[in-house]
């Protein structure tokens, strides 16, 4: 481990780290001739804030299995690797051939409460591979506290072109959209406008046949919880077993909505996800993370 002093200038620190990595690489290159060692990856750990100890340095030194396992999964994903994917046997068939399908997540983050001149950031992510494991993103800045995505037309075109590049010239024929962060009062307006933008993108792309679209609103801002009536139907925390769908009794009398526990709860009582109108929440969550990260790159006055 080589520790470099941070003087508040992250850019210069990274330049220095690159030079140091090159020096170490040269040493390994010389050693490779005798013992076949080489540098495949340089890991740079940045401190949380100025004049603080390196972030969880002791965890890296102690080599705790769970910590390093999670770290490796993140590094693998950032380098283009695949950690999880949908089994081909679980993907629906259509007349003997699989339908090219893109899974899209949409979210918009807004300024903090009390900020009057803030901006909103819209993020759209979409799968580009057959296993729904690799996602690409498109981000836009728009007027503060505006929930409808202004540039969804262009953002969808971005994702469709990336999909086509990975799929040997084939556009998606089925689109599954998970829309996060829409309140019931805004639901109809948001769906109407964003679905219209989707269809307009299909026309712009001059697709021979417009894809079928399933548009779902994802909501976890509620106080509804479910508990099993029989202990055998629950998990270790007393929650309803994963993949349990509740679509009768407490849902809307005539609209298509349902509650779903999509995965086991790690601790305590799980909050089921409420899906409306048309299934896991991953693409919407991915879009939320992209929008939050994009905000960190935007200047306060720009």
UniProtKB/TrEMBL annotation:
Pfam families: Piwi (PF02171). Residues 58-286 form the Piwi domain. GO terms for molecular function: nucleic acid binding. PANTHER family: EUKARYOTIC TRANSLATION INITIATION FACTOR 2C (PTHR22891). This is Argonaute 1.
């Amino acid at each position: 481990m080589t520790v470099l002093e941070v003087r508040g200038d992250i850019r210069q620190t990274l330049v220095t780290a690159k030079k140091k990595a090159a020096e170490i690489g040269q040493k390994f290159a010389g050693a490779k001739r005798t013992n076949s060692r080489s540098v495949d990856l340089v890991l740079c750990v940045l401190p949380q804030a100025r004049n603080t100890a390196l972030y969880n340095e002791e965890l890296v030194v102690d080599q705790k299995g769970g910590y390093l396992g999670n770290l490796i999964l993140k590094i693998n994903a950032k380098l283009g690797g695949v950690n999880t994917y949908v089994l081909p046997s679980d993907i629906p068939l259509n007349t003997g051939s699989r339908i090219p399908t893109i899974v899209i997540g949409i979210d918009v983050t807004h300024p903090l409460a009390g900020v009057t001149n803030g901006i909103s950031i819209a993020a759209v992510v979409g799968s580009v591979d057959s296993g729904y494991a690799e996602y690409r993103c498109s981000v836009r800045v728009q007027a503060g506290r505006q929930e409808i995505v202004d540039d969804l037309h262009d953002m969808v075109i971005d994702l469709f072109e990336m999909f086509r590049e990975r799929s040997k010239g084939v556009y998606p024929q089925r689109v599954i959209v998970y829309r996060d962060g829409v309140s019931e009062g805004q639901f109809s307006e948001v769906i109407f406008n964003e679905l219209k933008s989707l269809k307009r993108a299909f026309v712009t792309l001059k697709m021979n046949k417009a894809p079928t679209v399933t548009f779902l609103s994802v909501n976890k801002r509620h106080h509804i919880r479910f508990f099993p009536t029989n202990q055998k139907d629950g998990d270790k925390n007393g929650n309803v077993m994963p993949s349990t769908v509740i679509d009768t009794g407490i849902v809307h009398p005539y609209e298509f909505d349902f509650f779903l526990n999509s995965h086991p709860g790690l601790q305590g009582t799980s909050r089921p996800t409420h899906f409306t109108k048309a299934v896991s929440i991953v693409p919407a969550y991915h879009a939320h993370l992209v929008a939050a990260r994009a905000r960190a790159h935007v200047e306060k006055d720009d």
